[in-house]
Amino acid sequence: MITLASDFGTPYPAAMKGVILQESDARLVDVAHDFPRQDVRAAAFWCRETLPYFPPAVHLVVVDPGVGTDRDAVVVRAGDHALVGPDNGVLLPAARRIAERAAESDSEKEPTVDCFVYEYADPASSTFHGRDVFAPAAAEVHEAGVDALASLPAVSRVETVSVTEAPNALVDCRFPEASVEGSEARGEVLVVDDFGNAITNVPGSFLDGKTGTEIAVNGTPAPAVTAFAEVGEGERLVTVGSHGYVECDVNRGRGDEAFGLAPGDEVVLSE
Amino acid sequence: MITLASDFGTPYPAAMKGVILQESDARLVDVAHDFPRQDVRAAAFWCRETLPYFPPAVHLVVVDPGVGTDRDAVVVRAGDHALVGPDNGVLLPAARRIAERAAESDSEKEPTVDCFVYEYADPASSTFHGRDVFAPAAAEVHEAGVDALASLPAVSRVETVSVTEAPNALVDCRFPEASVEGSEARGEVLVVDDFGNAITNVPGSFLDGKTGTEIAVNGTPAPAVTAFAEVGEGERLVTVGSHGYVECDVNRGRGDEAFGLAPGDEVVLSE
Amino acid sequence: MITLASDFGTPYPAAMKGVILQESDARLVDVAHDFPRQDVRAAAFWCRETLPYFPPAVHLVVVDPGVGTDRDAVVVRAGDHALVGPDNGVLLPAARRIAERAAESDSEKEPTVDCFVYEYADPASSTFHGRDVFAPAAAEVHEAGVDALASLPAVSRVETVSVTEAPNALVDCRFPEASVEGSEARGEVLVVDDFGNAITNVPGSFLDGKTGTEIAVNGTPAPAVTAFAEVGEGERLVTVGSHGYVECDVNRGRGDEAFGLAPGDEVVLSE
């Protein structure tokens, strides 16, 4: 199985699929091709929130503002999964989450990720490495098998790092952490989803015991609830979303607009 | 085969697919994930117009404004198909259409649908039952087989109803019916499609014998034609669309804008 | 394998897939369903740039402003591929490119395409031949096999033409050619992609030896580069895109807006 994620819109992902299918009979599953354009952090977030739900797979992720420069192509292995993409950090949060889940089911194992560089020859284009570099690489890794990927001539192991360490040789991507002190949390909006839900980095545990109370979001009050339908249509709410973070939402509406929040904005939550 | 339909946009459907693929090797086919947000009636319409074209399958449909409340998860069986989703009526129009088609090929059979409740344990999230309740349920039904779904411990049969009856225990969804008197039809816009075609609930038979004449749509005249290209580019037309209803369209343009029509609007058609 | 491309948006492609899957177990791969509405030339361009990357397949392409008129349904065979769609030229540029690639690997072979008409009975609708004519035709061609398609009763061979000739009986589609004289090129914008890159018909070779120099695009200067990241965020550039043409782009922005270019616009490039 090969999953595909990018910021390519259409129809460029079809060229990647064609290239892969020339080399592999793998099942192909689209994750998304409308990640926010050239936004590595947003792509890394969404990959972390979707890829770990898949069974063992090769995950092709191409959000690549450095295409055509000398940035490397990399493969990151976590558990029985391999992630293939540019060396800009986009693969690492998902890889760590997958490694953590794999380690949970084997309590003696320290969660680690294996980092590899994939050496590519001069590609046909300098602007579409998704088609000319990463798709062939994903097909090659898939056909070799995740366990055997280190034996591929194009692949060189660089390092194996714990999920708590930054890699030395690869570009990393970490999300900012919120601070919680007493009844106040300070964080930021990580992403806004298609519904308009403003997903913060404040851990859901901040709302423990607060269900039914009013929470101020940068001064704007909204009830803490467990289901959207607990407030009227068009009304604000805060809840613990499916990612485990506090979200600022509107029932049947857009939380980003109602709370005036965009990705990267600071958020102060208080009782 | 499992089809997937939702109002989730991206990338949430990918998490559903990952969860299903953990449990099943089923072919996955996307129907749409951009149904009008939390609009149960529109989703029910589009499911009715697409799902019956599929061979026997499990159809996962998640348009779920009541997520996190105590609304049930349900399975509806029709012919050799099973539909899985929330108990808000979204499954029933498609299920009835599938049952009617199955009965057509077996003329002694009265078309009926079997209604089941699917009991789910506390899901990981209260906001994403697509991932935590419905995707696993669809995988489970698929692996058991549509014929054997009643034997699943989580599944309880509630009732079997004729397609002409409302279920007693499940929430229903019916589309309003138009009235036709002489040369006038009164109905409403059911949905507007991606082309901007305003699809009414007036049966296509209203246009029988009227091809080439002018029809007034809420007073705005447009010719009744059988092909868009019979009028000039940018010109209004009325025609019998692929759903069997009268549509108010524009050749290479948007009918909703040209006629000033939106879903739910009243439409009076007259010769 | 059957690929699907259209301007249908959603959820109409799902009905096509259901119809195909009633008759075939083929792998289905979406190319795109958001081609510019009823724009045959744009669809022909994108098909040419994506379909040749696929292994042998049946390619279903439905961009069909003449739906419901007496335009034919056609099948075009190129190499081991077959393309199915309306007789409006949309299939031919991709078919020629596939034929050229097939001939490259067999240097004695003159690249040709085989043109067929597919005779269809009265379809269920006059507005959705994608579902009622082309999807069944694609399934039928796939099940017969590309080599054997001429033996299908619905299929009649019309002619075999070299890629340099226009067919006599089918509607053709050719892209305009740019003229290059000395340090000036005159062409036009063929398409704008999802990134906002304005893709011209000026061959990439026009930029040979010009990397690092300023190019005037209708008088607006921009550096000729090989990677987007060679200019600052939000800055204009010209480069050879992945289609082999000169593109007018912006790093992390939209070239069409920055250069004031839309499909069909004339472009004069000069040093």
TrEMBL record, chains A, B, C:
<protein>
    <submittedName>
        <fullName>S-adenosyl-l-methionine hydroxide adenosyltransferase family protein</fullName>
    </submittedName>
</protein>
<dbReference type="InterPro" id="IPR046469">
    <property type="entry name" value="SAM_HAT_N"/>
</dbReference>
<dbReference type="InterPro" id="IPR002747">
    <property type="entry name" value="SAM_OH_AdoTrfase"/>
</dbReference>
<dbReference type="InterPro" id="IPR046470">
    <property type="entry name" value="SAM_HAT_C"/>
</dbReference>
<keyword id="KW-0949">S-adenosyl-L-methionine</keyword>
<comment type="similarity">
    <text>Belongs to the SAM hydrolase / SAM-dependent halogenase family.</text>
</comment>
<dbReference type="Pfam" id="PF20257">
    <property type="entry name" value="SAM_HAT_C"/>
</dbReference>
<dbReference type="InterPro" id="IPR023228">
    <property type="entry name" value="SAM_OH_AdoTrfase_N_sf"/>
</dbReference>
<feature type="domain" description="S-adenosyl-l-methionine hydroxide adenosyltransferase N-terminal">
    <location>
        <begin position="2"/>
        <end position="143"/>
    </location>
</feature>
<dbReference type="InterPro" id="IPR023227">
    <property type="entry name" value="SAM_OH_AdoTrfase_C_sf"/>
</dbReference>
<dbReference type="Pfam" id="PF01887">
    <property type="entry name" value="SAM_HAT_N"/>
</dbReference>
<feature type="domain" description="S-adenosyl-l-methionine hydroxide adenosyltransferase C-terminal">
    <location>
        <begin position="187"/>
        <end position="267"/>
    </location>
</feature>
